[in-house]
């Protein structure tokens, strides 16, 4: 009975594409290069934002809030980002986001008060929202549906590689320029992302339809038309975001709980990230060939089980194994949120739909750590981690119930 369950939004994509050769490698540099560079820019500044805030006289609590403004800026900008991208096109949106991010980085660099730094960090979050939404929309339109999951999982993978390598590149700049070197590294990377984005052909130019002629889609009407998708698969993807956000917090917290030093914790975190980055393309290929369900359910079950196992680890080896399994679960889910959202999006109003989709996912990103913090404060860290792990099983059940069994192509 479940096997035939679909949503109206998915029915737009059940007709196969015309058979035509398509080589993802031909658009790799222009399609994925900007995301890699943008990820490097963000990764370069993440480790030093709190340090910059404390250097300007901010308290530890105030410094933590400033760092969180990247996520807050992205959350509140998802819907405006959809409107901007729909109005001006993907290429111009990415170029504008890169320029806006450059201005934000300059503001952070010259800040002489925590409030100025806070504004700059918030602007970086805003630019990230526009850039990533435009990047996703472009790939959905440019890549055949038979390769959609591979393209979007690669997009997620390149962003992760950038975020992973950014701190090392930033550290090299810091060695020569001091703390401000991280901002200079980010500016170089973001400038490169904007330049690469400018080389992309505009999708409307290909189709011959002016962007201004596209009909405007009301967000409220779009939400009402697809409310069932948002309340089922949308909620499931929000749970995915919650698990991903919490995994970055759980590792250092539990490492401290069992007495590991900072160096060992960083190594464990790095190994987990390395495993995470190696799996994005195979996962995308499986989603394209076998269906989204073959990745969505295992990814959530693995992440949920490994998180629930962490409170039972009391030494380095068991903790490392659980962390590696957690990285594997997250790695095979690379691009999952974007792919499911792309499949559910309607041809008319796709950009606006994806803006709403990102908004729901970002609610999970912000809500997961809040839930972890609340349960930890009321009960214990072990209980908090186990609670987050249970969300993985809930997400797996929701995907099993509502995710279509067949690939859209």
Descriptive notes:
- There is one protein chain.
- The chain has helices spanning 8-11, 28-55, 60-88, 90-110, 114-142, 148-177, 181-198, 203-207, 219-225, 227-257, 262-278, 280-290, 293-309, 316-332, 336-344, 350-378, 381-402.
- It is mainly alpha-helical and 409 residues long.
- It has two domains: 28-204, MFS general substrate transporter like domains (Growth Hormone, Chain: A, Up-down Bundle); 220-409, Up-down Bundle (Growth Hormone, Chain: A), CATH 1.20.1250.
- Helix 10 (227-257) runs parallel beside helix 16.
- The chain is globular, with a radius of gyration of 21 Å.
- It starts with 7 loop residues before the first helix and ends in a 7-residue tail after the last helix.
- The model is unreliable at 11-19 and 205-215 (pLDDT under 50).
Question: Could you name the key traits of this structure?
Answer:
409 residues, mainly alpha, Growth Hormone, Chain: A, 2 domains, 17 helices, globular
List the helices and strands and how they pair.
Layout lengths: L7 H4 L16 H28 L4 H29 L1 H21 L3 H29 L5 H30 L3 H18 L4 H5 L11 H7 L1 H31 L4 H17 L1 H11 L2 H17 L6 H17 L3 H9 L5 H29 L2 H22 L7
Task: Work out the helix count.
Answer: 17
CATH superfamily of the largest domain: MFS general substrate transporter like domains
Mean pLDDT: 84
Order of helices and strands: HHHHHHHHHHHHHHHHH
Task: Please outline what is shown here.
This protein has helices at 8-11, 28-55, 60-88, 90-110, 114-142, 148-177, 181-198, 203-207, 219-225, 227-257, 262-278, 280-290, 293-309, 316-332, 336-344, 350-378, 381-402.
